[in-house]
Amino acid sequence: MADFAAFTRAALAFPAAFFTFALLVVAAYWLLVLLGGAGVDILDGGEGVDGSAGTAGLPVTVTLSLGVLIAWAVSLAGAALTESLPLRAAALLAAWTGTRVAVRLARRLLPPERVASRGDFVGRMCVVRTGRVSSDFGQAEVRADDGSTAVVQVRTEETGLTAGSSALIFDYDADGEFFRVAPFDAALDPYGPAV
């Protein structure tokens, strides 16, 4: 019981108390994630304003959680081992340094995430979903490498593309934000299911 009392005193001493409460917030956040993500969009999955991930490709939530955990551990050890305020306050510096080292290790060990682009659909077969496709109208469904599908804007100069017909995406027009397609036999699709 004396050990728990000493732990509680150290956890509630300055500056560990600040990080103890921050660690409780982090723990509550990750508990919500484990329970199905209720209310987890607080930091939008770690993406920045420009759509990029947090530090070194790690989500912001992971980086912040790691920093809080390191700061809490160092400040708790400082509060338990010494009465010197400067040594206790070193927790911030230790957290920053420890998080930076961990992020660099993660950058080396984790493969970089490949960002999908619209150009990835060029060369793929799609299925027309509108009644017709013309030079100024049409939509089709195309399958990505991960198995997901997307409905995209398509255009063609040829006739005969109607709902349910197969087409080959052969170009992407970035200015008009649509794909150019041509009629295509679905049996020849190299990305299609094996028969």
What descriptors fit this protein?
transmembrane, 195 residues, five-stranded mixed beta barrel, transmembrane helix, 5 helices, alpha+beta, DUF1449 family protein
* Structural class label: alpha+beta
Strand order of the largest sheet: 1-2-3-5-4
For the largest beta-sheet, the strand count, sense and barrel status come to: 5 strands, mixed, barrel
Residue runs with pLDDT of under 50 for 5 or more positions: 41-54
**CA-to-CA gap between the ends?**
68 Å
Give me the number of helical elements: 5
Strand segment tally: 5
Helix content: 25-40%
Shape: rod-shaped
Protein name: DUF1449 family protein
Transmembrane segments: 12-36, 56-81
Keywords: Membrane, Transmembrane, Transmembrane helix
Description:
This is DUF1449 family protein. Keywords: Membrane, Transmembrane, Transmembrane helix. It comes from Streptomyces chrestomyceticus. With 195 residues, the protein is α+β, with helices and mostly antiparallel strands. It is built from 5 helices and 5 strands. The chain has a 5-stranded mixed beta barrel with strand order 1-2-3-5-4. A hairpin with a 4-residue loop joins strand 4 and strand 5. Helix 2 packs antiparallel against helix 3. The protein is rod-shaped and about 85 Å long.
